[in-house]
Write a structure and sequence with these properties.
The structure holds two protein chains of two kinds. By secondary structure, chain A is α+β, with helices and mostly antiparallel strands. Chain A is built from two helices and four strands. In chain A, strands 1-2-4-3 form a four-stranded mixed β-sheet, with helices on one face. In chain B, 35% of the residues lie in helices and 16% in strands. The chains are: A alpha+beta, B alpha/beta. At the A-B interface, α1 and α2 of A face β2, α2, α3 and β3 of B.
């Protein structure tokens, strides 16, 4: 696990279930600059499958996650990769 | 755009519906093989079984069964996926489908029109040359016969710009084919309900990780859900049904006790917790001093119905073998205690949805 300690922005999706956390991640990361790191908080354990898949799909870099009690902190670095146009 | 041969742009971009099932994955792959840029749109309708399994958060559930297949397919294909929330507009369509329902509560033709229309809007807004789907001629009785495919295309307002790569050889050439943007000879000629050809192509292209073909992930095509759905439409003005009420149709055992009163009895701890989180205005019943389901009530029961609801709750509690069970009924600040025998199963079946 190579998740960084510090993120540039934090997105809290605790209490939300798929696909809402991914939709919100996509919206937020489009407003961020390349190279910036987004930390996503979630208590949906399947996001550990979906977030890496979304990163592979869009070309952003999945940096890993940390577990904190029943919540997960996932880290994504924005790249200039294959984003959709929205 | 005129219907004539056009110079092929340097980069052709296709917008496709990608559920993550075998057909839509293959359709995207067919276009990628031709060097076409593909963007996948994955609709979140609120009726996906995977999404509901996730919301239930049962600890013993295999996470792979709950993953988002659209994202998984996008990752495997290396194409970007946009997840779109179908929202209230989709619910409105489901409750009042212009072209009616299939055998269950599935408004398949209206659903296809809704999604393809959305893809066309996306294409107009963000650029793209055509829309594609994984539809296969003759595969589904309601929405994938020739007449339905034509109707869907016409009502979506993109006549000529809707490509079905898996069945293209059986269909008239589309404008992308006539313009030379897509090589028709490299599109497929699959038809019918068998999935053998799709599975052969998936083996050819090394696509192995997909949900079971035709397994179905949509509650609207589920028999049990459909029974509850149509009961809801019968007893509620469809224009006043909210999304939350649709979510509740997926949870617990449902019993219609009278035209104005229905109950939902949780089946396990996960459903108890799920129902407890819902901000419902009606009565709630629980058997006391034992493991008990949470029973939530829609409508206002009279005293006789309260006894029946208590006895149904007792039937599913850990004290179901006892002669009398104490059940607590709460609504806001009001609380009532009822001593009832657990209901007999043959009585119960009269009310089950």
């Amino acid at each position: 696990m190579n998740a960084p300690v510090e993120a540039d922005e934090v997105l809290d999706t605790v209490g939300l279930y798929c696909p809402v956390p991914i939709i919100k991640t996509a919206e937020r990361i489009k407003r961020m600059g390349n190279g910036r790191i987004l930390e996503v908080l979630s208590d949906d354990r399947v996001i550990l499958i979906d977030m890496p898949a979304w990163c592979r799909s869009t070309g952003h870099e999945y940096l890993g996650h940390r577990r904190q009690g029943s919540e997960y902190r996932l880290f994504v670095r924005k790249t200039g990769g294959r984003e959709t146009t929205r | 755009m005129s219907d004539m041969t056009m110079a092929r742009p340097d980069r052709i971009k296709a917008i496709g519906l990608l559920s993550g099932g075998l057909d839509s994955t293959l359709a995207a792959r067919v276009l990628l093989e031709q060097g076409i840029e593909v963007i996948g749109l994955h609709y979140s309708t609120g009726f996906c079984m995977n999404d509901h399994r996730r919301a239930m958060a049962r600890p013993d559930e295999d996470p792979k069964r709950m993953r988002n297949e659209g994202l998984r397919a996008g990752a495997d294909l290396g194409i970007p996926i946009e997840i779109l929330d179908a929202g209230e507009a989709y619910l409105k369509m489901v409750l009042n489908p212009k072209h009616g329902y299939g055998a269950k509560a599935n408004p398949c033709i209206d659903c296809r029109i809704f999604m393809i229309h959305g893809a066309a809007e996306y294409m107009r807004e963000h650029g793209g040359h055509f829309v594609f789907t994984g539809e296969v001629l003759g595969q589904r009785p309601m929405s994938q016969h020739m007449q339905a495919l034509r109707l869907i295309e016409k009502e979506c307002g993109i006549e000529g710009y809707l490509l079905r790569p898996l069945s293209a050889q059986h269909l008239p050439p589309t404008l992308p084919e006539r313009h030379g943007w897509v090589d028709r000879d490299r599109l497929l000629g699959i038809s019918g309900r068998s999935r053998k050809e799709q599975m052969a192509w998936s083996a050819t292209w090394g696509i192995g990780d997909y949900p079971q073909p035709a397994g179905g992930c949509c509650y609207l095509a589920d028999e049990n859900f459909a029974r509850r759905f149509h009961d809801k439409r019968l007893h509620t003005d469809p224009d006043r049904i909210r999304r939350e009420e649709m979510i509740l149709l997926k949870v617990g055992r449902h019993f219609r006790l009278s035209p104005g009163v229905k109950i939902i009895v949780a089946r396990d701890q996960s459903e108890n917790e799920f129902l407890a989180r819902f901000d419902l205005p009606g009565w709630r019943f629980e058997a006391l001093d034992c493991g008990s389901p949470l029973t939530v009530v829609e409508g206002e029961p009279d005293d006789d119905l309260k006894l029946l609801i208590a006895s149904i709750t007792a039937r599913y509690s850990d004290r179901r073998h006892e002669a009398l069970v104490e059940v607590c009924a709460r609504k806001g600040d009001r609380e009532e205690r009822l001593w009832v025998p657990p209901v007999a199963d043959q009585v119960l079946e009269r009310y089950r949805l």
